[in-house]
Amino acid sequence: MSLESIYNAVLSGNAPLARTETQAELDAGTPAEAILNQACIPAMAEVGRLFEVGDKFVPEMLISARAMSASMVLLKPLLAAAGVKQIGTVVVGTVAGDLHDIGKNLVAMMLEGAGFKIIDLGTDVSPQKFVDAVKSDSPNIVAMSALLTTTTKSISATIEALTEAGLRNQVKVMVGGAPVTQDFADRVGADGFAPDAGSAARKAKEMVAA
Ligand code: B1M
To answer: Whose CA is nearest to atom 16 of ligand 1?
Structure first.
């Protein structure tokens, strides 16, 4: 039992082992944040590196993602503190054309823990679906995640759709994901950018307070 065994379980895509090792580590008193930041996230980064150099393929990325999710089931209730006073509503989604949801789920979890009500639209969310959610749920923030260089253009398409629908002034837009930068956020006219889930929660609080 160690952070290394969780790392190895996620890296090798062994979901049952990831779950039992995570439980054992939690029982031993390791904080959920340490398991997430020192085992699960580095393992997924290594999966990505191995994919890049041709040593792992899409099905292996998928089984590693499932193993990370098995660990997340146990970490989620500990990361998102219960009973926090609600400070706003955030519509969250991974943009059109993009199926990556682990980072988006983490961001949603941290926002929930910070006191936001979360409306999670899932993955491959079209600009129209974001527009419809803003109309029906009047969120304070629309939070878009993109993991592919090619799908960052869906972020700008969604911002344009919000503008065309006359909703852009009613809602703040926060963006993030591996290929997204502060410079990109500025260029597409987003109100906020965060490089990781923890800073996304801080940024969202700043945005509603502003
Ligand atoms: Co894909 N994939 N993938 N993949 N995948 C990447 C992203 C890639 C970098 C791998 C690589 O080449 N090294 C590469 C993208 C290259 C690029 O465009 N620059 C890639 C590719 C190419 C692809 C496919 C095209 C492969 C193919 O089919 N040939 C394909 C595309 C499918 C599609 O979406 N249409 C594909 C498919 C998949 C799987 C389905 C197999 C699986 C996803 C499963 C799932 O999500 N349920 C998968 C995986 C697992 C990955 C890697 C290995 C891991 C992603 C992940 O979960 N990371 C990834 C490599 C990598 O990232 N190093 C890769 C862990 C997660 C916690 O981090 O998502 O970055 P991340 O989220 C962070 C921050 O980015 C930030 O906070 C999070 C937590 O701190 N953040 C936000 C995220 N959203 C935010 C929003 C915010 C703020 C912060 O505000 C709103």
So the answer is: 148
